[in-house]
Amino acid sequence: MAHALKGTGYSLDIDHMKMDEIESLLNEGLSEYEFNPVTTSADARVVGFPMPGGAIGPNVHMMQSARDTQQKRSRARRVP
To answer: Please, are residues 56 and 49 in contact by the beta-carbon 8 Å criterion?
Structure first.
């Protein structure tokens, strides 16, 4: 965002000297959560997805859960 505003006369009024501290606090706060790289990284293909951006994460999670369930059922069928 700061780069986008460069040269426009606007600024974010952020103390750049505290960015490391802010990043550290964010990483600490999010450390107990597991994030899927698919839902946290930029992907140009998102333009072609027929759903709003906020729905992509939950849908990926549901697809993974369904795949895991399907794999468990498949393994259970093989057990005599």
So the answer is: yes
